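Researcher: Structure prediction, please.
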Amino acid sequence: MTAMKIGELAKVANVSQRTIHYYEDLGLISPMEREGASHRLYEEETLARLEKIAALKKLGLSLEEIGSVIELYFGKDDEILAGKQRVIEILRDQLKKVDAQIDELASFRSDLILNIRHMERLYEEYRPDTRA
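Model: Predicted structure follows.
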């Protein structure tokens, strides 16, 4: 694959040109050069970076977290391993947060069930057709 203009890259990567510009602003990707006065050209590695960003986003990483590891994925072997280790740490932190949210929701659910049952008893007690 040769150098691509932003429209071609957007189409191949299945993202908008605006997304590409945004990722550039965040420092996640960069053009390899400019053609003429304003046309950016992108290399194949940029496509690989966009694919890696999409994969990391699917794992639940924020763009800030992705920014902290993306360079590691395109370095030497030991850097790639460091990137994967950092992603594992981020995912473990997310799991802890999700587990805490699940506990909170389970507690909230139990409270809701108790409140529903209480309100149903009150309703039954005060329903006109059940009062003597």
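Model: The two ends are 85 Å apart (CA to CA).
Researcher: Thanks, that helps.
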